[in-house]
Amino acid sequence: MRDINSRIGFFLIVCAVLSLPLWAQEIPLTSVYAYHGDPQWSPDGNWIVYERYDDGAVWYNIYKIPSTGGTEIFVNDSSSTGWWPYPQWSPDGNWIAYQRQDTTGLYQVYKVSSSGGNGISLTNTDAGLPQWSPDGNWIVYAKQGAIYLEIYKVSSSGGTEIALTSDIFYHSDPQWSPDGNWIVYYKYDATDNGQIYKVSSSGGTEIALTNSNYTHERPQWSPDGNWIAYQKADAGVFPQIYKVQSSGGGETILTSGNHYHYYPQWSPNGNWIVYQKDDATGYYQIYKVSSTGGTEIPLTSDSYHHYHPQWSPVGNWIVYEKHDVTGYHQIYKTSSVGIEESETGDRQHAIGISVYPNPFTTEAIIRYSFNGNLKDNTGITIYDISGRLVATTNGNMIGKNLKSGIYFLKTNSSEMVKVVKLR
């Protein structure tokens, strides 16, 4: 009887809604022993381009991989030894712009067909951090001027480089507005801090959007063009995620706490901002927060660093680089939903998962119901707390020899995940 009771206790399942959000399954897309970084989704969502540096290689190369996983495909070498290529898709998906080191040691803006081939030079002086205009006709970038980095643009087919800024201050990280009429960037101005500025994409007077005694960096337009999100090292020393109206006005803080927040990126619908944050795990994790502020929601949580998150075009996935168990940075993706147990909206699809422990064996029966209809044979997958796949089945038996802990269950007919706890 004692043995039976102990088994019953071991298989006590807690299926109640959790008060705190957890994280979803992480899916590795690369695994070879090489550095992978700066992943970017193709406009159609079918591919991810990134830079890769192999052990013993002379320079970084540009690769792409299907967003569902598969074989890595070589696109081009960047000839870059000291600075990453920073590959960026054209709006039509036919080209990839990147920065490349030339034979003189200077960096240039290049483009290459997304199907691979020879790179085409678009600049002839020290330039980098390219960004395509929404119509694909121009590329904006930061270029070394007479003294400082300035903002320039060039036709995506090549030609004369056009200066958009020219003064005695450092400019960097230019980004096009969704309508193509403005360029936002950060500038170390007379405040001696990085401030958010914008300038017309045809040139003209620079307009300051922030003016406080703290550094503002990595500005990003909201999809509707009304807001700029950025990271700001404020009075608390730790960079937080802020936003400001693109027309100017007061700054709005979206995150808080004694943690570093970097690389904000808007969701395609403008409702969320994803970023990396060093949290209580001691590692950089991927988080999101409502674009109006509120609770920060972790999308990853393990003993590895996660960097440079990017939304998929339809907003259902986040891609990023992770310094994982291989000892290298690999490309991963995870659901942008996270584990947010709720009784509303699409998440109702997951509330029908039930687990029935067997006190006499180390097996558990999992059944799934939807709209009151029990589905014993619905395919189910189960993941452990690190996102590792534990088992999958098309029947209703799963969970052999599970250790106590938290597990994530997913049915084939739903993208949502149910959290269960065995103890």
Protein architecture, described:
- The chain is mainly β and 423 residues long.
- The chain has 2 domains: 2-19 and 345-422, Immunoglobulin-like; 26-335, Neuraminidase, CATH 2.120.10.
- The protein has 1 helix and 37 strands.
- The protein has one helix at 2-10, and strands at residues 13-14, 26-28, 34-41, 47-54, 60-66, 73-80, 88-89, 95-101, 107-113, 120-121, 127-132, 138-144, 149-155, 162-163, 170-176, 182-188, 194-200, 207-208, 215-221, 227-233, 239-245, 252-253, 261-266, 272-278, 284-290, 297-298, 305-311, 317-323, 329-335, 353-357, 364-370, 373-375, 380-383, 389-393, 397-398, 405-411, 417-422.
- The longest helix has 9 residues, at 2-10.
- It is globular and about 60 Å long.
Strand content: over 45%
* CATH fold annotation of the largest domain: Neuraminidase
Terminus-to-terminus distance? 19 Å
CATH superfamily of the largest domain: TolB, C-terminal domain
Strand arrangement across the biggest beta sheet: 1-37-36-33-34
Instruction: Pick out the low-confidence regions.
Output: 1-24, 339-364, 370-377, 395-401
Query: Could you tell me the number of beta strands?
Result: 37
Number of domains: 2
Largest sheet: 5 strands, antiparallel
For the record, the CATH architecture of the largest domain stands as: 6 Propeller
Shape: globular
Radius of gyration: 24 Å
- Our count of helices gives 1
What's the CATH C level of the largest domain? Answer: Mainly Beta
